[in-house]
């Protein structure tokens, strides 16, 4: 199986300076999948950067989940751990609560425990689409 390289951290760095900054947030719904204040601090209120990160996550997360499933099916625990590690980095950047789950999958892959890996992967498969939806909602609110 050919491993893919994910380049989440370089989300559109070739763009010119981003003038739009958010210094205060509108009334905040409770997001279940990420810490909004922490995420906004990480992007320093830069809505364009947040949009870039959200778009990059949207474009990569389904592919990463598919790669995780394929690695687990092939019992390729090395590839499973590496992909979980890349996903963990992406999720951490987004202040996502699923970061701990991806870290857990990365560690469990080292023990080659198929059932435990499958449980963590099933949870990520449920959690990541929620994160994607909530990020889209946040970007829409901040861009309005």
How much of the sequence lies in strands comes to under 5%
CA(first)-CA(last) distance? 43 Å
- CA gyration radius, whole angstroms: 16 Å
Instruction: Give the CATH architecture.
Output: Up-down Bundle
Task: Give an overview of the whole structure.
It is a single chain. By secondary structure, the chain is mainly alpha-helical. It is elongated. Helices cover 65% and strands 0% of the residues. It contains 5 helices and no strands. The protein has one domain: HPT domain (Four Helix Bundle (Hemerythrin (Met), subunit A)), CATH 1.20.120.160.
Summarize the structure.
This protein has 144 residues and is mostly helical. It is built from five helices and no strands.
What's the SSE blueprint?
Elements lengths: L35 H7 L4 H27 L3 H17 L5 H13 L2 H30 L1
Keywords:
144 residues, Four Helix Bundle (Hemerythrin (Met), subunit A), mainly alpha
